[in-house]
């Protein structure tokens, strides 16, 4: 695996793939963390007299209307302000302006996913599109950790065609996640929450092989409760994965800890219920105090902890207690504590517990897939 310092970028024309997929509301960027984290790699290239063409995706493009709402122009402007350096924005993904991009020190191309409508050329890793983009440059640098689990034309496709390396953010992410990859300090506990188990089955299966305890909460817990024979009222669960979860419970009966009680809303209002007595019309929104106490005891004795997802609907104060109480425990531990995934990071930032963690991964799905497979899908080949 090569990094940016391992290849020659001096005076080269460099395509730099970043993850600038930020949340924009009413014309304003709500969180510019991803933009700020891209700057060290850009500055390194500038100090080596490279000319830079930045590529990134933004949102999903399924029709022409989506293009109007997902232009990278606002991101280009924000990066220019942060760097105090003029960024040339190219409002297209092909054409003469793109071919002439390197006449400027830094340019940013329009959203790579504009190529997804109508034929999914970007996300389908179209070889001709990748060849077209590669023909513009000498070198490819991938610093978009958030998309390293995808084989798209703008990462995997370009890495196949140009001398390539990863940037500083990818290096930071892999280093930050390394305590979960090898020589894990035990006991190792995983806090697994979030809305659905669907896209986390592979990760759960791999983590169960390594961890000492899996503490389940959020909507994911509903599927585990159903698989254990409990009734969950009107709460949502993933029916197609019940049999898979049952196998997990059979294989790892002492590793998997389920909620003992929940906070649920029914016709009688919002109340605490034992998992043995959840009303038929109840909808579960958080873990209860008995569960919190049980999870606290396990976490207090853990040397490595990985958090993915939340224990409940933390956005609303009445369902925040489970998530926040566990964060309070983590804040007082001298352990390796790592969070990964969008929901986890959003809750940590919203509730103000950033200092409780050894590392916060920005990768979302990329960090989860890396932990499950120990590989990056958009690998950089040796050139």
Written overview of the protein:
The protein has 383 residues and is α/β, with parallel strands linked by helices. It is built from 14 helices and 17 strands. The strands form 4 sheets. It has a 6-stranded parallel β-sheet, sandwiched between helices. A 6-stranded parallel β-sheet has the order 11-10-9-15-16-17, sandwiched between helices. Strand 16, helix 13 and strand 17 form a beta-alpha-beta unit. It is elongated.
Structural class: alpha/beta
Tell me, what's the shape? elongated
- Helix % is 25-40%
**Tally of domains:** 2
Q: Looking at this structure, what is the CATH superfamily of the largest domain?
A: Phosphoglycerate kinase, N-terminal domain
Our estimate of the beta-strand percent is 15-25%
Our measurement of the CA-to-CA distance between the termini, rounded to an integer number of angstroms, reads 11 Å
Helix tally equals 14
Number of strands: 17
* Sheet with most strands: 6 strands, parallel
**Rg, Cα atoms, Å:** 23 Å
CATH second-level architecture of the largest domain: 3-Layer(aba) Sandwich
CATH topology of the largest domain: Rossmann fold
What's the overall average pLDDT, rounded?
Answer: 95
Brief summary:
This protein is α/β, with parallel strands linked by helices and 383 residues long.
Features:
383 residues, alpha/beta, Rossmann fold, 2 domains, 6-stranded parallel beta sheet, 14 helices, 17% strand
List the helices and strands and how they pair.
Layout: E1 13-17, E2 24-25, E3 28-29, H1 33-47, E4 51-55, H2 64-69, H3 73-83, E5 88-90, H4 96-99, E6 106-109, H5 127-134, E7 139-142, H6 153-159, E8 164-166, H7 168-177, E9 188-192, H8 201-210, E10 213-216, H9 218-227, H10 242-251, E11 256-257, E12 261-266, E13 269-274, E14 283-287, H11 289-300, E15 304-308, H12 321-331, E16 336-339, H13 342-351, E17 359-360, H14 365-373
Parallel strand pairs: 1-4, 1-7, 4-6, 5-6, 7-8, 9-10, 9-15, 10-11, 15-16, 16-17
Antiparallel strand pairs: 2-3, 12-13, 12-14
Helix pairs in contact: 5-6, 8-14, 9-10, 11-12
């Amino acid at each position: 695996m090569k990094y940016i310092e391992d290849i020659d970028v001096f005076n080269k024309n460099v395509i730099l793939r970043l993850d600038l997929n930020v949340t924009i509301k009413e014309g304003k960027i709500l969180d510019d963390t991803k933009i700020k984290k891209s700057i060290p790699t850009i500055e390194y290239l500038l100090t080596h007299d490279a000319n830079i063409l930045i590529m990134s995706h933004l949102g999903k493009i399924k029709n022409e209307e989506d293009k109007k709402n997902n232009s990278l122009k606002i991101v280009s402007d924000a990066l220019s302000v942060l760097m105090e350096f003029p960024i040339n924005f190219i409002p297209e993904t092909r054409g003469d302006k793109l071919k002439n991009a390197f006449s400027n020190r830094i340019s940013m191309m329009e959203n790579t996913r504009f190529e997804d409508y109508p034929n999914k050329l970007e996300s389908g890793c179209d070889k001709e599109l990748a060849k077209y983009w590669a023909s513009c440059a000498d070198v490819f640098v991938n610093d978009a950790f958030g998309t390293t689990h995808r084989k798209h034309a703008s990462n995997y496709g370009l890495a196949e065609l140009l001398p390539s390396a990863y940037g500083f953010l990818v290096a930071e992410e892999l280093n930050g996640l390394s305590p979960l990859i090898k020589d894990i300090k035990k006991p190792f506990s995983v806090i697994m929450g979030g809305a659905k188990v669907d896209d986390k089955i592979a990760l759960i299966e791999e983590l169960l092989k390594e961890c000492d305890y899996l503490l389940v909460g959020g909507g994911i817990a509903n599927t585990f409760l159903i698989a254990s024979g409990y009734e969950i009222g009107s709460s949502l669960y993933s029916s197609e994965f019940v049999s898979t979860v049952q196998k997990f419970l059979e294989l790892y009966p002492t590793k998997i800890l389920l909620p003992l009680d929940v906070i649920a809303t029914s016709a009688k209002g919002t109340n605490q219920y034992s998992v043995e007595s959840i009303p038929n019309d109840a909808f579960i929104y958080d873990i209860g105090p008995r569960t919190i106490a049980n999870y606290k005891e396990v976490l207090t004795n853990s040397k490595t902890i990985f958090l993915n997802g939340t224990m409940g609907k933390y956005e609303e104060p009445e369902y925040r207690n489970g998530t926040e109480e566990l964060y309070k425990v983590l804040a007082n531990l001298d352990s390796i504590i790592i969070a990964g995934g969008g929901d986890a990071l959003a809750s940590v930032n919203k509730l103000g517990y950033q200092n409780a963690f050894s590392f916060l991964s920005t990768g979302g799905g990329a960090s989860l897939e890396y932990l499950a497979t120990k590989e990056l899908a958009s690998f950089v080949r040796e050139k």
